[in-house]
Amino acid sequence: MKVGSARTLACASAMAAIALAGTGSVSRTLSAQSAAGVQPASATAPLLAEQAFKNIQALKGISAADFMGTMGIMTAALGFDCSECHVAAGTDKVDWAADTPRKVIARRMVNMVVAINQTNFSGRQLVTCWTCHRGRDKPVVTPSLDIVYGMPTLEPDDLVVASVPGLPKPDEIIDKHIQAVGGEQRLASLTSFTATGTSIGFGGFGGGGAVQIYAKAPDQRSTIIEFKDTPGRDASIRSFDGKIGWIKTPLTVLGEYQLSGSELDGARLDAELAFPSQIKRVLTNLRTLQPATINDREVNVVQGNGPGRLFATLYFDKETALLARVVRYGNSPIGRLPTQVDYADYRDVTGIKLPFRFTFAWLDGRDAFQLNDVRINVPIDATRFGRPTSLETKR
Q: Using one digit for the tens of pLDDT, what is the confidence trace for 113-124?
C-alpha cells in the first residue's frame, strides 16, 4: 500500500470497512486470513512467504514479514496501491493469488534486479526498483533541461562506511545527547516506563486511537493502539519480548503475524533505543555523516550498525543535542526497507527528558503519537510484551 496518496487512503478506507464489519475475534481474523490464502503464524517459527501466501514465485525464501515490506518497496517505487496489481484489493472480494499482467511483469523485474546486481556488482544491492522508477510506473528516459541546468537535488547515501573527516566524533555527539536528556547517572537508573496518549494515522485516517506504550530495559517494548469508539475494529499492536516480535493490524492481509528477518531486528533495535543510555552499546562501528537539516533546524548525523544486517542513522539537534530522528534500514530482495521515527515535545519526567510526540513511518503506513502521561521505573508484567491478541482490552 502506497503511503501518502489519495488512492492509498481510499484503499485503506475500504479495507477498514471490511475490518469494521467483523467482530474483532481471533477466529474471524484467522478465517479472513484463510480466505485470502494466508495461514496463521506459528508461535515458534515465523512463516516464509510461500507458506503464508498462495502463488509466490519470485520472492520465495524470505519471511512473510519481510515479504510485506518488499510489497511496500514496490508500491513506493511505482506510485501504486494494492488495487493496481491485485484483483479487487480493498474490497471483500479480493483475490490476492490471481495472476494479473502487472504481477507477471513485477516478477520479471524482481529477477532482473537480482541478476543485474549479481552480474555487475558481485551481489551487492546497488540497483533497486527505486533506482529507476522514483514514484512512476514507467521510468523517465529523457533528461529534463530544467533539471540539467537547475539546482541539483542531492540525496545522501543510505549507508556510509566511515566518518566524514573534520566533523565531531560520533561519541562526542552521543555524549552531548546523553547529557541533554538527563546525564549518564540518571539514565542508568531508567529501567522501565509506561505511557498513554492518542494516535492519528496518516491523513487523519485511523485517528482517535487510545495508545498504551510499555518498555522495559534492555530490550522489551510494546505499542498498543485501540479504537474504543469503534466497536469491532481490531487494535494495532507491535510487541517485542526480547526474543519474539509480533505485529497486528486490521489493515493488512496478514492481520497478526510473527516477525522475523529485518522486521525482527528492527523491533529489537526500537526496543533498545527506547533507553538512551544504550545507544553506544547497541550500535557498533559508529561514524559521523555530513550535517543535515530537519524542519529548518541543523542536525548532527551519526550512523551505526545494529543487529543482523540492520543499520541506523540518528539525527541530533545541533542546538539542543536532543534526538530528532532515527531511520533504520532493513533488507529485502529488491531494496532497503526504511523505517523512520521523528521525535519532538521533549518534557522532563523526574529529571529525564523524554519525547511526548513522535511519528512512526514505514513503507505501509504512518502513525503520529501524542503522549499525555509518562511514568518511569514502574513494574511491568512480562505478559505486556506478548502476542498481540493477548494484549487487547476485551470489550
A: 999 999 999 988
What's the CATH architecture for 170-390?
A: Clam (2.50)
The string over 67-95, giving b where at least 16 C-beta atoms fall within 10 Å of a residue's C-beta and e elsewhere, is bbbbbbbbbbbbbbbbbbbbeebbeeebb
Domain 6-133: top CATH class: mainly alpha
Whether the predicted pLDDT of 388 surpasses 50: yes
Q: How many CA atoms lie within 13 A of 310 on its CB side?
A: 26
Distance, CA of 94 to CA of 205 (rounded, Å): 22
204: phi > 0 → left, psi -120 to 50 → alpha, else beta; which? Answer: left
- Check: CB of residue 335 under 8 Å from CB of residue 343: no
Rounded distance between C-alpha atoms, residue 85 and residue 219, angstroms: 38
- Interior angle at CA 271, CA 266 and CA 277, nearest 5: 120
pTM: 0.84
**HSE-up of residue 92 (Cα within 13 Å, Cβ side):** 9
340, β-bridge pairs: 327, 361
Q: Which three cell numbers stand for residue 104?
A: 507477471
